[in-house]
């Protein structure tokens, strides 16, 4: 009877809080979008599922051992933690909600050494790190997860179209206005008193405009880890919405005649150029922006493995087993940050609102840059390929192609748009490096 | 204008300036690289190699498309019935 | 000459203890069963091999750095450890067997923080963690290994037959009597003074009756890590013996007429039901038993990846590369617990004896439950499918099918038995959650 | 009866009680779910999809079965000998 | 403006040191050898790329958090580190180059506990471990990487030819003179005052003569981690050069008549012998040289998985996904040790010079041993297969075959040479165990 | 002769001695093992099993070689044109 009571008072139904209900519904919503609407399912299925797991009451899957100990608040464990975290609490004293809050605050502000000591003490008292907490620490806390994804993406990327027409790199540069414009937007919201952001938070939100999943997760894990859930969800959701967000903007900024411009076929690119290109990028990074070295270094490494032709088995693994394994853990780890207390917040709404602004600004600037370039170059560029500069590979390039076909059924822009599309990946990684350098 | 606003503007100026500077350098480096490679590299053309394009692993290798496969099956059936293997 | 002496006094032949000889023979025996008799080879090959490695004298592959330092007992290292572990030992004092024992006991009781400090000190003195110790810490100590296996099993499980006939879930419930009956059996042995068990040990032994490898390893790693070797070996061995253990019990409890009952064909199940089912299970877990969330959460995640149809590459990886990698390390890690001093013990014999009781009780209760259900339902259930409720997927279901065919050559029970079979997996994970909640 | 015995009995009662309670709830939840899905879901049948059953990876994809392959080889040989490629 | 200045003073171009330029060029050279000349590309592509990454100025990818903090030398962080590392430095004091050196020296000599505390303090001050530092710690520092590669190599090795003719094991023994001869060579250089080596360094350099990549990395990670970069590069480079290094030596030591010796065809070997052989090796290791247990244990485990026929999926994974993943990280980790300050050093030149001596001595001793054996056995051995005893699987065996064909176009030695070839792997692992036992 | 030199010589003597001792033992152990296995093992021959030799994964499964594939395509085209599917 006693034991059944323990089971009941320890059940989810007995302990669930409204915020957790909402977050579980949000997780289910993400799964719905991923499975039915095919919104970037490779990431949103694990993120949505991880979000549900993180909000199961009493399970503490996304909490560290010390946080779990504070949650259950047994006097003996609290007394042991009090010494480590420097909270005034005597063994035997009743644990009021205020005292719990004091412990939580102390844990949040504790140094690395204290946190690790607090977790050891909590383990001595029988608490363990939650599964998702461990995933997050290993995969995102160490920054390794997004970097390995980037390596795999590099191994899947064909720089041929970019090499055939290198000036499309500029389209990838222009589209990064989406990033910095969004930072400005966040600052504006702060100035108007609508929401509060620090510059770190504003920068992390801006990276959504990079339209690149691993870059977003990497930057927010460095600059504002508490926002990583909202930022990643926003980035992947809008990437999935690219076919809806971009076309109206592209059409508004171009004339029918511009959209119908046919581009000359791309020159063939030799294998050797493809092999040397990642090394050129790497050297440029080494000389000009060391802070982009982790992201672009791994990207170039993946691409070199792909193109060099002598390490096919490594390239295959980077594109398949390894990236899949990391994707599973990365998704669950991001999901672990979808906890009610940090997600259900005005900031999240702001992030979702600013995210769509970011995509729109990036799209517009890419298109306008293409029109500007047409004033200088001989062979005209179809401005529709400018929008592909936001990244969102290969969706944005397909959108360029589709809108181009609407204007002129003989107009195949896909390969032309792949150039700015992969340039956008490089561009947003550079922007990420700049932000980490200046703020990190 | 508050401090965050001016920080954001600073960040935009430095950031976009740097992004453009970096990618312009990369444009010239790439053009130079291509020129050097095409001049000094042995004249191996191999442009027609169809690069794997998509990010996704081709889920099924399927070396023979379904139509073909069906037609083969029929051909084989005929062949066998003729040869009474 | 001196050096050759060092090699000889450091050799296995010079140092081997009888217990290690026995354990190496046991390891060879496990390999024999796995390779020749095909006893669950995927686990028993790595477990058997790991068991041999763990018992190589002087190699210390299954020991931590501090344990290795204590084993070699150089005065300088001992003096350094004495401070950390709070053992009274002066530098230069002779290291008697009693002092060594004192060090070992102090290490065993030390807090997490002290253990990590002791290992750091031992590393400063030139000792390292054994390879298998590292595997165990990462794969089992963190509980991640069994959970990933469970995810992969989820990705391999087809819930179709269960969804077509959900009441077979009750057969999976009844078979869990095997678990709790075995706990009672262990208590009985303790009461009779034959063996000593704590309630934690009894519960960990009981989980053998769950007939599910990863669940057994997970529960024993939480409740009684020192028994994990014997429990895992026992669980996998009896799972392999299911075709011998179950049929006599099934035949004894059923009449020829009952065994010949033909069941109506299962209705077709839609894809959508299969997608929603893992989410239903997850929500039920969240509401009623958060302590089963790690196990069942990962299981449902794997199954959702399988069924949702939009993340095939993740599902493939979960079923192949990832589960295979984890299986290798999990097996070696379990093998690391086959060390003479903890395995060669009356408890191990008790565990082996109780394990077969567990399987027998589970089988019997499953069959009896099916007979009981026949008193209430219209369409009769063939009681032979009840025995499949113990889990042991898919062996137990095949046994049901085989015994059914003996009674009636037209009687194909395989798909009908798959329902209770996978229900048994859920049932034992729930039982695991209950035991962890009440005792953990 | 010693303490361990009574603990074990307690555990059995609570444990089996809970396991049954949970799985009975799951039976009803599943029945309800199936009813809802079948009523509101679009009428896509697709029951005949052969689910991958075994835990083991199919070791060789083998898109063409050996018999067929052999027959093809012969057919090709004939074809070639006729066309003198 | 201020921010652009930050970007410029933080750029690679502003900070680059001559040593880093040289090392980046060396990295590019390794990539050239790997891609164009096909020099062991599976390892040299990641090593070369990792070497470039490690030398990107200011990025600190190969440094720990504390090393990064010392590099940037902000007074606040230095003050915090001073306490942990026991360096006399007051907060606010100017950080002169001497003080920086003092910090570096103190960090280098610090105990494990101090290092981990220093890194925690550095993280509190906003510095992180570099990506490559993390890879190195996990993959090589723990010794797990080379062991997993060895497991995969075991799973790819066919012992059939060795089992058909076990006396070729002696050729694999003789070729290990390359290892110990090189140790002697290093001692000679030290005696002549040309270079300074400790016995640990000499032994680590000697292992290059084992002509086996993972063994070289494993031994040098245990005995002389600071030389791992030079040793690994040397080992893989000379393995690639085997077709150039060996033939002149082989021809110089044999007559045309000896080279033309035809060997009788190998007897067929049963599956059962192949299954039992890895267990025989394991037991021999357990009895005679426990210090070789990690290397040979994993090797035998891989081979048992391959041959036993009941764990194909594990064997496949060990040979593909797992070994590929580990190779990527192992290569990058080795590359992280190609930093200017430790690589650009007279020792590296010595290592490169001694490495080729090692290969030459090993080759010669293998050939001479074969000639010696011909004095005792009835069926003559073609001495060309002796050179395959150095390992360098399967290159050395192919060289034996090629030189044999030159002497007698009907003389196919490949399968005969595979015996000593795999024996060489066992032989160098045994030699590694001896060196670790006597020196480690 | 300095200390390092004598250490190196010691290491060589002990090392090579041990390597030879170990591998000689292994020769005899292997011969004994083979003898035992061949005497007591059931007489399953299976020597002709072609062991996978190379360290590399076969990069492309390619169950049908390009020539064949092309020929098939032609055959199919003929077949279809005759049958007007
Ligand atoms: Na971008
Ligand atoms: Na079960
Ligand atoms: Na060797």
TrEMBL record, chains A, C, E:
Biological-process GO terms, alphabetical: sodium ion transport
Catalytic activity: oxaloacetate + 2 Na(+)(in) + H(+) = pyruvate + 2 Na(+)(out) + CO2
A Pfam family recorded for this sequence: OAD_beta
Membrane topology of this protein: Multi-pass membrane protein
Keywords: Cell membrane, Ion transport, Lyase, Membrane, Sodium, Sodium transport, Translocase, Transmembrane, Transmembrane helix, Transport
EC category: translocase
Gene Ontology CC: plasma membrane
Protein name: Oxaloacetate decarboxylase beta chain
Originating organism: Marinobacter vulgaris
TrEMBL record, chains B, D, F:
UniProt entry keywords in alphabetical sequence: Cell membrane, Ion transport, Membrane, Sodium, Sodium transport, Translocase, Transmembrane, Transmembrane helix, Transport
Residues passing through the membrane, by range: 12-32
Domain of life: Bacteria
Cofactor(s) needed: Na(+)
GO cellular component: plasma membrane
GO BP terms, alphabetized: sodium ion export across plasma membrane
Topology term for the membrane: Single-pass membrane protein
Catalysis: reaction(s): oxaloacetate + 2 Na(+)(in) + H(+) = pyruvate + 2 Na(+)(out) + CO2
MF term (GO), any: decarboxylation-driven active transmembrane transporter activity
Start and end residues of each stretch annotated as Disordered: 45-67
A Pfam short name: OAD_gamma
Subcellular localization, as worded in the UniProt entry: Cell membrane
Main location (coarse class): membrane
E.C. number: 7.2.4.2
Function text: Catalyzes the decarboxylation of oxaloacetate coupled to Na(+) translocation.
Similarity comment: Belongs to the OadG family.
Name recorded for this polypeptide: Probable oxaloacetate decarboxylase gamma chain
């Amino acid at each position: 009877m006693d034991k059944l009571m323990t089971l009941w008072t320890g059940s989810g139904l007995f302990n669930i809080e409204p915020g957790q209900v909402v977050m579980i519904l949000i997780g289910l919503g993400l799964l719905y979008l991923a499975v039915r609407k095919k919104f970037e399912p490779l990431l949103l299925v694990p993120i949505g599922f991880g979000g549900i797991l993180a909000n199961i009451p009493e399970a503490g899957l996304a909490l560290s051992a010390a946080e779990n100990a504070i949650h259950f608040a047994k006097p003996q464990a609290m007394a042991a933690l009090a010494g480590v975290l420097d909270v005034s609490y005597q063994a035997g004293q009743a644990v009021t909600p205020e005292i719990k809050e004091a412990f939580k605050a102390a844990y949040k502000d504790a140094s690395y050494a204290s946190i690790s000591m607090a977790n050891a003490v909590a383990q001595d008292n029988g608490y363990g790190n939650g599964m998702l907490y461990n995933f997050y620490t290993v995969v995102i806390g160490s920054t390794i997860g997004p970097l390995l994804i980037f390596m795999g993406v590099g191994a899947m990327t064909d720089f041929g179209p970019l090499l055939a027409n290198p000036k499309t790199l500029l389209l990838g540069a222009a589209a990064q206005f989406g990033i910095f414009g969004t930072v400005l937007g966040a600052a504006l919201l702060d100035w108007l008193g609508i929401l509060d952001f620090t510059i770190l938070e504003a920068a992390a939100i801006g990276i959504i405009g990079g339209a690149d999943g691993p870059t977003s997760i990497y930057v927010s894990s460095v600059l504002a880890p508490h926002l990583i859930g909202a930022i990643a969800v926003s980035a992947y959701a809008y990437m999935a919405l690219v076919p809806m967000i971009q076309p109206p903007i592209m059409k508004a900024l171009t004339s029918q005649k511009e959209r119908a411009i046919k581009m000359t076929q791309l020159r063939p690119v030799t294998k050797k150029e493809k092999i040397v290109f990642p090394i050129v990028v790497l050297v440029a990074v080494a000389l000009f922006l060391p802070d982009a070295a982790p992201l672009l270094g791994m990207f170039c490494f993946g691409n070199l493995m792909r193109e060099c032709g002598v390490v096919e088995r490594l390239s295959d693994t980077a594109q398949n087993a390894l990236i899949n394994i990391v994707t599973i853990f990365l998704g669950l780890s991001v999901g672990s940050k979808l906890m009610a207390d940090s997600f259900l917040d005005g900031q999240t709404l702001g992030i979702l609102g600013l995210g769509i602004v970011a995509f729109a600004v990036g799209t517009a600037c890419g298109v306008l840059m293409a029109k500007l370039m047409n004033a200088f170059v001989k062979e005209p560029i179809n401005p529709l390929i400018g929008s592909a500069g936001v990244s969102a590979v290969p969706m944005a390039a397909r959108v360029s192609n589709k809108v181009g076909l609407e204007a002129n059924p003989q107009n195949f822009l896909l390969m032309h748009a792949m150039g700015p599309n992969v340039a956008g990946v490089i561009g947003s990684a550079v922007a990420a490096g700049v932000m980490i350098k200046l703020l990190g | 204008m508050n401090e965050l606003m001016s920080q954001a503007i600073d960040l935009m100026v430095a950031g976009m300036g740097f992004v453009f500077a970096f990618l312009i350098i990369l444009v010239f480096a790439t053009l130079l690289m291509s020129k050097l490679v095409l001049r000094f590299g042995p004249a191996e053309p191999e442009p027609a190699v169809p690069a794997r394009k998509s990010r996704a692993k081709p889920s099924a290798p399927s070396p023979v498309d379904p139509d073909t496969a069906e037609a083969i099956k029929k051909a084989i059936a005929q062949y066998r019935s003729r040869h009474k293997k």
